[in-house]
Design goal:
5-stranded antiparallel β-sheet; disordered C terminus; alpha+beta; Nuclear Transport Factor 2, Chain: A; disordered N terminus; globular
Length: 233
C-alpha cells in the first residue's frame, strides 16, 4: 500500500535539499588537490545554506523569484539533473533500450530526457525551496562517515535532523568522489526510504499506466505524484 508524501517525508526531503545545495558551495572554494572529505563537505555546507534560508524571509514576499533563483543556482552547481532524471526514468532510458532504438527513436528519447530534466529540476527546486522556508528552524547534527569497504571514493554520511517538536530523524547521504577530487551527492536515504528508488518506481508506474507514452508522463509529472510506503504503526 502507498500513500502520498507524508508530512514527515516531505519535511526530511526539504532538509535534504539544504545540503544538496550547499555541498557544491564549499567544494568549489577548495583546490581539488586538497578537497575536503565527505563529512567536512556536509558539515560546512549546512551552515552556509542555513544562512541563506535565514535571510530569505526579509525579501521573499517582495521578490520570491530571487530566493528560488538562489536555491536553483546552488543546486545546478552540484547536482547533475540530467543524470538524475535519466535514473528516475529507469528502464525507459536505459542503455539497453537506447541500443534497441533507431535514429529517429533515439532522437525522440533524447528530447524526452531533456524535457523531463527541465520538468524535474523545476519541480524539485520549487517544492524544496518553499519547504526550506517552512522548516528553517531545524537543528542538524553530523553523524558518522562510513567509507565503502571496497573503495575509498565512495562514502555514506549520516546526519541527524531534530525538528522543532523534538523528533529526531536520520538521513544518509550516499556520496562519491569524482575525478576532480570533489565529493558529490549521488543519492539519499531518509529514515530508510531510498529517494532514488522511490522516484524511479513512481515514474515507471506512471509510464506503465500511460502505455509507455513518456510525453504524457512528463507533461503530468509533479513532485506530489511521488508516493512512499505507509509507515508501520
Amino acid at each position: 500500500m502507498t500513500v502520498s508524501f507524508s508530512h514527515k517525508f516531505t519535511f526530511l526531503a526539504f532538509v535534504t535539499a539544504i545540503l544538496i545545495a550547499g555541498i557544491g558551495t564549499h567544494a568549489r572554494a577548495q583546490d581539488a588537490a586538497v578537497s575536503p572529505g565527505p563529512g567536512e563537505v556536509v558539515a560546512d555546507a549546512t551552515s552556509t545554506i542555513m544562512a541563506v534560508v535565514a535571510e530569505a524571509p526579509d525579501y521573499f514576499d517582495e521578490d520570491p523569484q530571487r530566493y528560488f533563483d538562489a536555491i536553483g543556482a546552488e543546486l545546478d552547481k552540484v547536482v547533475d539533473f540530467r543524470s538524475f532524471a535519466r535514473g528516475v526514468m529507469g528502464k525507459y532510458a536505459s542503455s539497453d533500450r537506447v541500443r534497441s532504438l533507431n535514429k529517429e527513436q533515439t532522437d525522440q528519447l533524447r528530447n524526452q530526457l531533456e524535457q523531463f530534466t527541465d520538468v524535474l529540476r523545476a519541480s524539485l527546486i520549487s517544492t524544496y525551496a518553499r519547504g526550506l522556508l517552512a522548516f528553517g528552524g531545524v537543528k542538524l547534527d553530523l553523524g558518522d562517515v562510513e567509507m565503502a569497504p571496497n573503495s575509498n571514493r565512495v562514502a555514506s554520511v549520516s546526519q541527524f535532523v531534530k525538528s522543532e517538536d523534538g523528533k529526531v530523524y536520520t538521513l544518509k547521504y550516499q556520496m562519491g568522489q569524482y575525478k576532480d577530487g570533489r565529493w558529490r551527492l549521488r543519492n539519499m536515504i531518509i529514515e530508510n526510504i531510498n529517494l532514488g528508488e522511490i522516484y524511479r518506481s513512481q515514474f515507471e508506474a506512471a509510464a506503465d499506466e500511460a502505455d509507455g507514452d513518456l510525453d504524457r508522463v512528463i507533461a503530468q509529472w509533479t513532485d506530489t505524484d511521488v508516493e512512499t510506503p505507509t509507515e508501520e504503526q
